[in-house]
Amino acid sequence: MVLKLHGIPMSTCTKRVQIALNEKGVDHELVPVNFAQGEHKSPEYLANKQPFGKVPVLEDTETGVKIFESRAIAQYIAAKYRGQGNEISPSESDLKAFALYQQALSVEASYFDPVVSGIAYEKVFKVMKGQGETDEGRVKALLKQLEAALDGYERILSKQKYLAGDNVTLADLNHLPYGVFVEQFGFKELLPKYPHVQKWWEELKTRESWKKIAAN
Q1: Domain locations in the chain as residue ranges
Q2: What whole-number distance in Å separates Cα of residue 16 and Cα of residue 9?
Q3: 3-state DSSP call for residue 128?
Q4: Which CATH number fits domain 3-81: 2.40.128.20, 3.40.30.10, 3.30.200.20, 3.30.1340.30?
């Protein structure tokens, strides 16, 4: 297999990469990283795969590229397989489209991900890691931040179908893993207040690239 993805199926960041692979119709080998045995913190892993001890990591045996950080991996896949499957990022040669795409990527990384990942940490990972009990006050504050972010999303999506324009891109798709995960913790209840966001969100969840992951 040309592409080897080191990660775990339950990882939101691994799923983010798999969405891109599915959109492009690219086969890959998922190489499980043994978290229970601390493989991700082993000297070999830190030295040769991911210096911060995280997943996923992509190895492209065809080009020799080894890359970490899920958004960077997804962009690499979109660029390498341009012309195959669905186009999920504009060409850099289209200056306006690429600038708006970069803007939309920043929106997700700046206003959405820090909030929903914080909610996920408080509601699930904090207890799982033995770092204390859920701070419901913190969750409430994060949901308020999410509401403020969704106000901005509603302004954008009232004027266009997707965050970067009229075509779906990674800027939209990158929301799915954490967004779906925190629906149960208050995100879903907020959506009816934002009709354009809700329409956008429900449509994203129907994409085959996500349904294939959700089914597993």
Answers
A1: 3-81, 95-210
A2: 11
A3: helix
A4: 3.40.30.10
Three-state SS letters, 77-104: HHHHCCCCCCCCCCCCCCHHHHHHHHHH
Give the C-alpha separation, 196 to 155, whole Å: 9
Angle at the Cα of 73 from the Cα atoms of 68 and 76, rounded to 5 degrees: 130
pLDDT digits (tens, 9 = 90+) for 68-111: 999 999 999 999 999 999 999 999 999 999 999 999 999 999 99
* CA dist., res. 96 & res. 107, Å (int): 17
Identify the pLDDT of residue 113: 98
pLDDT tens digit sequence for 166-215: 999 999 999 999 999 999 999 999 999 999 999 999 999 999 999 999 99
Give yes or no for a contact between 91 and 82, defined as CB atoms under 8 angstroms apart: yes
User: What is d(CA 70, CA 75) in angstroms, rounded to the nearest whole number?
Assistant: 9
- Residue 160: which residues within 8 A CB-CB, separation 6 or more? 166
Is 1.10.20.10 the CATH classification of the domain at 95-210? no
- What count of other Cβ atoms lies within 10 Å of the Cβ of residue 37? 9
Query: How buried is residue 19: exposed, middle or buried, by Cβ count under 10 Å (0-12/13-18/19+)?
Result: buried
SS3 41: helix
Tell me, yes or no, if the pTM score tops 0.90.
yes
Q: Identify whether the C-beta of residue 118 lies closer than 8 Å to the C-beta of residue 142.
A: yes
